[in-house]
Specification:
This protein is an all-alpha fold and 541 residues long. The protein has helices at residues 2-10, 14-25, 36-52, 56-68, 75-91, 99-112, 115-132, 135-151, 154-157, 161-173, 177-194, 197-213, 217-233, 237-254, 262-272, 280-295, 299-310, 323-336, 340-357, 360-376, 380-397, 400-416, 420-437, 440-454, 466-471, 475-485, 490-497, 501-515, 520-529.
């Protein structure tokens, strides 16, 4: 029964697994020799299922009852129980309450030579400290955990998929994108091989987020789509809502301004979290709706959503280590609706939080917030300095997307401050980074800001807009664009050109990205207005 329940949970049948674990726990004769360990294992795994189903109170009660029973669990059994109890606390944003207990459990695991327990405790502590913003402690714990993981074989790590999830996400939060991608890839390979679909979706998402921040928006969205497809097949409402929320953030950058898909995607994620309380994932999913609302041109809603999700103007429920990013959004929304004092207070707090957290991406967010304030005050030189410094901070960590955003905002004010040559360099670099990474929104915004950043008389600027996008298409992409404009489906195009449907989809995605058009109808209109040259030789397969 225990093995079957574990198999059900591994493959995503969370409720069925949970119910069978309860049967194991309540089977008579649990005090018999050799059976006590099975009961403890069932309690831990049942609590994992309850947590994955978003039933944190039930998980807490189950674990506390087992920890408090007399006679109590053995020291080795207690390790797994306490780690899962602390994990439950992390998900409801109450880690400080269990920090000391987790530290003691980590030492116990080391004393007993329990490598699995040590790895689990290390990654949980590292991720929790990163969440809270204690970056120095998180770095120390992460280095140790990564060293242990890298020394183990894939066989050793088969039972450590969830710790690998925590390790990868912690490295993302610490701006260590290369390490995060490496551990995500390794964990995903093991998860696929062992059928651990719940953790596979999270590993794909952590890799996707690393791609997003390093301005590989197209692949980030592809990975998020796969993670969302897996999440939909499982029974975890919170996992689905969390995955869809992160995906909506990618979608904002992957689509042109005003794209009708952006806001509904974020709304679906927030709706999935209704009734799930104030967990970490729930709060984050609802907060990200503010970014979509701002992208849709509704700053009033963006401000209201962010304040509601964060619990008020001080955002007490928001993830502490992400406060500079949320405060940056609040500054933008507050300025747009005329709440200047609120925006100034938010920018000031963003700077203080960034100083406390001490990570380049957080300092960059706070500097962009300051840049908006200085621009609103009519100080272009100060705004230019803030955005330029934000770009430098982003580049330090390899957060190319944030660097491009900072450069693009800064170019306008750099020119206004009298440095036309510097503004041109910033604008060109920002647009190139955005275009190469598939950040369609940034490309469109850069083109809109081109006159302000470069001046109307700068003849060295390449033509922009959809027509210029057509000129950037490869011969293969141009032929596919023509066929799509004729009304052919993807399958029909694939048959006509002897290509696979996925290959055609990838080409069409690149056509959309380069031209900035959001739909087949818009592409057909564009092609009809501009002659597309005949195709050349197709690229090798």
């Amino acid at each position: 029964m225990l093995m079957r329940a574990g198999a059900l949970g591994t493959t995503g049948a969370l409720k069925e697994s949970r119910d069978l674990f309860h049967q194991v726990i309540h089977t008579p004769g649990q005090d018999a020799d050799g059976v006590d360990a099975l009961r403890t294992s069932a309690v831990v795994q049942c609590a994992v299922m309850e947590r994955q189903l978003g039933r944190y109170a039930e998980a807490d009660a189950l674990l506390r009852r087992e920890l408090d029973r007399v006679p109590g669990p053995s020291p080795s059994q207690r390790i797994g129980l306490v780690i899962e109890w602390c994990c439950r606390a992390q998900f409801v944003a109450r880690f400080p309450e269990v920090r000391e207990e987790l530290t003691r459990t980590l030492e116990s695991a080391r004393t007993l030579g329990d490598g699995l327990g040590e790895m689990s405790a290390l990654t949980l502590a590292a991720m929790s400290e990163a969440y809270e913003g204690d970056i120095a402690e998180a770095y120390k714990l992460t280095r140790t955990a990564a060293g242990l993981a890298d020394a183990l074989t894939d066989g050793d790590l088969a039972g450590l998929c969830e710790p690998l999830v925590r390790l990868a996400w912690t490295e993302v939060m610490l701006d260590r994108y290369t390490d995060a991608e490496r551990h995500s890839d390794r964990g995903a390979e093991i998860a696929r091989r062992t059928g651990r679909f719940y953790v596979l979706s999270q590993l794909l998402l952590s890799k996707a987020y690393a791609h997003f921040l390093t301005c590989r928006v197209t692949t980030a969205l592809e990975l998020a789509d796969e993670a969302a497809a897996i999440a939909r097949s499982l029974g975890s409402t919170e996992l689905l809502g969390f995955t869809l929320a992160i995906r909506s953030l990618f979608l904002i950058q992957a689509r042109p301004p005003g794209d009708p898909e952006m806001l509904p995607a974020a709304e679906e994620a927030a709706a999935a979290m209704e009734g799930t309380g104030e967990s970490w994932w729930s709060t984050l999913a609802r907060s990200l709706l503010a970014f979509a609302a701002m992208g849709a041109g509704d700053p009033h809603r963006a401000r209201d959503v962010l304040l509601d999700a964060g619990g008020g103007r001080d955002l007490p429920r928001s993830q502490p280590s992400l406060l500079p990013e949320f405060l940056e959004m609040l500054v933008a929304a507050a300025l747009a609706v005329g709440e200047t004092k609120e925006a100034e207070n938010a920018a000031e707090r963003a700077l203080k939080e960034a100083e406390r957290i001490d990570l380049p991406t957080r300092r960059a967010a706070a500097l962009r917030a300051l840049g908006r304030i200085e621009a609103h005050r009519g100080n272009p030189a100060a705004a230019a300095r803030a955005f330029t410094e934000a770009a430098r901070e982003s580049a330090l960590s390899g957060a190319t997307l944030r660097e491009a955003q900072s450069l693009m905002f800064g170019a306008v004010f750099t020119r206004a401050a009298g440095d036309g040559a510097g503004a041109a360099v910033m604008w060109r670099r920002a647009r190139r980074q955005a275009a190469e990474g598939g950040a369609t929104l940034l490309v469109a915004l850069a083109d809109q800001q081109r006159p302000e950043a470069l001046g109307d008389t700068d003849g060295s600027v390449e033509p922009s807009g959809p027509a210029a996008g057509l000129a950037q298409l490869t011969s293969w992409e141009r032929e596919i664009a023509e066929l799509v404009a004729e009304g052919l489906t993807n399958q029909a195009v694939a048959s006509r050109l002897c290509l696979g449907p996925r290959t055609v989809e990838s080409h069409i995605a690149r056509v959309y990205r380069k031209t900035g058009v959001p739909s087949r109808a818009a592409l057909a209109t564009l092609v009809a207005r501009h002659t597309v040259t005949a195709p050349g030789t197709p690229p090798p397969s």
